[in-house]
Amino acid sequence: DVTEIEEKEAQAKQEEQIIKEQELSNLLHEKRYLKALGLAISLDRPHTVLTVVKAILREADGRRRLEENIVRLRRDQKEAVLAFLVTWNTNSRNCHEAQAVVEILLKHEAPASLLQYSGIKAAVESLLPYT
After folding, report:
1. Burial class (CB within 10 angstroms; exposed 0-12, middle 13-18, buried 19+) of 66
2. For residue range 19-74, what is the model confidence (pLDDT) as tens digits?
3. Which run of H or of E encompasses 106?
């Protein structure tokens, strides 16, 4: 009977998720935004990533700080953020944050590099009507 083993594994995953969420909350409180972004992306939490972006933009010199953090993300993390911001951009409450991130990506990534992002074609097609 593997039911008990599966239950233990599910409980371990749930405990790990709770620990990561607490860590994310602590990172935001400590204003360690790069780690917070990375953790939120790894948890696949678009709304949490948006919350981190908004927190950065509320800081003094927020645009510059957002730029510093987005530029330091790995390529796979940037691809995830790009996928998230497509959804953010469709909502008028979140479109300014989405556009800020798009601007940073366009400013710091070469067109040839952007073309190699997974899902870039669909992202651009989705962004155009709202941009």
Report:
1. buried
2. 988 998 899 899 999 999 999 999 899 999 999 999 999 999 999 999 999 999 99
3. helix 95-108
The whole-angstrom separation of Cα 4 and Cα 66 is: 45
Percent of the chain with pLDDT over 90: 72
Asked whether the predicted pLDDT for residue 78 surpasses 80, the reply is yes
The DSSP result for 5-58, as a single string, is HHHHHHHHHHHHHHHHHHHHHHHHHTT-HHHHHHHHHHTT-HHHHHHHHHHHHH
Q: 21 — phi, psi (to 5°)?
A: -65, -40
Distance CA 115, CA 68 (A): 22
Distance separating the N- and C-terminal Cα atoms of the chain = 55
Question: What is the Cα–Cα distance from 93 to 71, expressed in whole angstroms?
Answer: 24
Q: Tokens 């990506």, residue? A: 105
